[in-house]
Each structure stands twice: as C-alpha cells, then as structure tokens.
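ok trying again, last paste got cut off:
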Amino acid sequence: MGENSQKAVEIKEDFCGRCSVCFSICPFDAIVRDDKTGEAKIDIETCQVCGICYSACPAGAISTAYYDVNVLLDYIEKAINEKHTDTLVLSCRGNTPSTCEVVDLLKDQKITSFIPLRLPCVGRLSPDFFLKALGLGMEKIVVVQCEEDFCRSKRGSAVNTRRLLLAKHALKQLGFGKDVLTIIEASNKIEYDTSQCVGCDKCVFICPYEAIEAEPLATPRINFEKCVGCGACALVCPHFAVQLKNMKYDPTSQLLRQHGQTLSKLKTKKASPALLVFCCSWAEFSALDSFMRSNVPENVVLMEIPCFKGLDPMHVVEAFYLGFDGVLAVVCAEKDCKLEKGREIAKRNEEVLRKMLEKLDLTERFKLAESSPRDLGNFDKTLKEFVKKISSMPKLERRITVCTK
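nice, full thing came through this time. structure:
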C-alpha cells in the first residue's frame, strides 16, 4: 500500500465519540477497537472500502475518498437540470455490472425516465442522504439492491433494508406517500438458452459454486439460487448457451459492435494508442462510474467485468482483432476477491491467454495487474505506465483471424 492508501477511509479521532457502531457493523472485521479506551482504528489492509461504516457513524467521524454524500448530491442536482426527471434510481455493482444499466429491472415499476446512480453498495447510504435527495426535488427513489445472500459487502443489503424502513417511517410522519422509497432485490445471474445447449456439461464441471447440475439425457439444470454471476461457465460454453448479460462473446452481440464503433471513433480522432482496459468491478471505483471519472485518457476504452473469472481470453484476442494497440486487465488480489471460490479457474484462463498471445507475438501488448480501491492512485499509475509502454512500441498493423470456441 502507498501512503495515500490510508486516506481511502479514515477515522477522525477528534470527532469520534467511541460509540463502537463502526466496529460492530463492519462486514469485513476491518475496524479494530481498543477495549479500554474505545478508540477505533481501520486496518486498511483488510478494509474493502464498502463505505458501510462511513454511513453508520452518528458523529460523522469517518471520511471516505469514494462516493462522498456531498459529491453524490452535487451529481443529482446537476442531473435534475439535464434529465428533467424527478425519479432517482440507486443500484449496486453486484446487480449492475455495467454502469447504470438497470432498465430491465425497472419494467414492473413502469419507470422510463430517471437519474441513475450506481454505488459499490447501497448500504453505504444513510437515511439522511435520502431526505436530502428528496429535498433536491426527487419525488420517487428506487433502490436496486443485491439479494441479501449475494451481497458483495456481506451485510450491505440487510443494513440498507433496515435503514430504508426507518426512513420510510420518518417520511410518513412528514406527509410523504408510502411509495416514495422502493426497494428492488436483484443479483447478477447468467442467462441460459437451452435451445443452444448440446449437453456437453462443460459448465457443470467448471462452476465453482455448484450452481449447474447435470441431468441424465437432458440439458444441465441451472440452480439460480446458487449462481453468483461470476461468468466462469460462459467462458467454456462452446455454443454460447450460457452467457452473462453485458458480457456476451457471441460475435453478433452488441458488446463487440459497441467496441468496434468506439474504436472507429478513436481512429477518427487520431487518438493513439487505442487501448482497451478490462477492469474488475471491485478492483477500481472511480474510473468505472462516469460521474466519478477524472483521469482516464480519451484513447482508453473501459470494459467492466464482474470478476477475474469473467475475463475471457477470447475477449482479449478479439480486442486485438478489432484494432486495439494494447489490452490491460485490472483485477483484485486473491485476498480481496468478492467471489472467493474458483480462483484457480481465473489462473487457468490466464495461462491459456498467455499461450495464445505468445503464438500471436502479442505478449508485450497485454498486461495483467492487481489493484484495490483502498490504494488511491494505483489504477491511474498502472494505466499511465501501460499507455507509455504501448506508445513506445511500433504501431500494430496486422489483424488476427477471429477464433471461435
């Protein structure tokens, strides 16, 4: 950790009331408390920067570098004037792997126009935030949170549910309607097209959570109650029968078309070198949400993946085929992985990828790096160094024949 990492989350001792709320609520046991004095300190090496302690502190003694309440309220205030809507939709990264793509989840709410706001965990918001958002002119707030058993912050969804019940009760006393705050539970799952399945059972073998079960003389059965949306099965399916939404490899998918269109715009602007960055949802915060983004160069295209296990070697090869000059993958360290099972799958995929790139003489144009939101500036530094490296290399002229699974 660099010295700036201590500022990702910190407790201001002068304001701390020694109430121990943060100590009791931290889902990762990252807050250490002195039994004699009651003084609380954050173990930055264990902290996952979920922000739950930040929202729970009654004295406001905890500060965070990410998604500060004032920053969020400023964003909402500006968005109101731009979007002309009175509906705010908050979502978790765990159920919205691509920035603010929650339209499908809102069908039953009949919401078509809204201000989207995505957070690492909705559990980092206090009831006070909702009151202030309503004070800005919001008439309806919808919170799309992870199902409790699939919360990447372990307790975030449960904490948020209790807080919203308290907020609803307070708002009722103030004359607001019962629908002013709404909770939707959803978790990222795979999509399964049985008509494309040939029953090879590769997905059964690879799933680290035992969420796919083999069936005699039939296609496998998906147990969606166990699926955590890691994407491992999608990487081995030869017929694209199982796919992660927003991460589909199928050559006809919107994903590839979108990257091709973005690359064409970069080439038109003569932005060079053109780079594609695959980034785990939990390895970096600011760069992946547009309203937080600051230091990402215009020649860099960011593509979010739900986990290291969701990094498909074919996506990397496809990026070079499309014409990107370099590819960077930023993932969590093993001890920080939010989807803890199946790390060996990611390692095997990495080995396959490196062998493919070696045969194509592209090894030097790919980099895999580990990062964490608690290490402020690490992502920017890694990206800057990679841009510099690729800029010094000869222009990549050749194109690669697209492979299929």
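cool. Residues 356 and 362 are 9 Å apart (CA to CA). Residues 1-6 have pLDDT under 50 and may be disordered.
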